[in-house]
Amino acid sequence: MAAVARGQRRRGRAPGAASAAAAEDDGEEQHLNPFLSDAAPSSSRVQFRNVASRGRWVEEAGAAEVLDNKGKLWLTTGIARGGKLYYNVEEIGFLAERGALVLLDDKDETVGMEEIYGKIARGSYGCSWDAFQAYRHLKLLGYIVGRYDVPWTMKQIRSGDVTNSPDSTDGSSQSFGKANGACNDITKLLKGMRIDGMYPTFKVHLPNSKFKKSSPGVPSFLVCLLR
């Protein structure tokens, strides 16, 4: 009888209670594997609480230095350099769209979405508009996405857990790599197969609540964009 009563209490719980508890446990991002979960498609989307971090745009880096980081977004977003956390322009666009990030300029004035979209569309900060759309789509599905061949942390560089690419692994500078195709072994392989104009853009990991930037493991797959 006691077991039946407990089951009735669980079934009687409000529909939103379980999902709210899960979001509380998992932090800012609720990662569900779309290949393994039988839940409705909407439940696999990224969910944010009503909080926002702040970041200041650094023109020389083409990225935003995070000033105050609320919640656990940093676990799967941004790259660490010199003890600081930075968001690339595609991450800025995605987070700002969802009210999870307030971007400031060098005068501490808020940068609006129109200007953020402009930074992405110009393609001058390592990410094109097409690459941003691919990034946004994957993030909405709950995947963990980073720029290809760009280490999440300096620890990856020291451990040799990245491809030796001078454009992306220079931890002594603020070069955070590009999401629009650097010259690398995969690009050479594709050219050898007579596939021109295609290049790796993002590394993608399956949803994983235990993901660590310092030891992310091998990506589940890469995203390549065709020019």
Automatic annotation (TrEMBL):
Transmembrane region(s): none
A Gene Ontology BP annotation from the UniProt entry: tRNA-type intron splice site recognition and cleavage
GO cellular component, one term: tRNA-intron endonuclease complex
tRNA processing recorded as keyword: yes
UniProt region (Disordered), positions on chain: 1-40
Record keywords, A-Z: tRNA processing
Highest taxon above the source species: Eukaryota
Entry-linked Pfam families: tRNA_int_end_N2
tRNA-splicing endonuclease subunit Sen54 N-terminal domain residues: 42-103
Family the entry assigns: Belongs to the SEN54 family.
Protein's name in the database: tRNA-splicing endonuclease subunit Sen54 N-terminal domain-containing protein
Organism: Aegilops tauschii subsp. strangulata (Goatgrass)
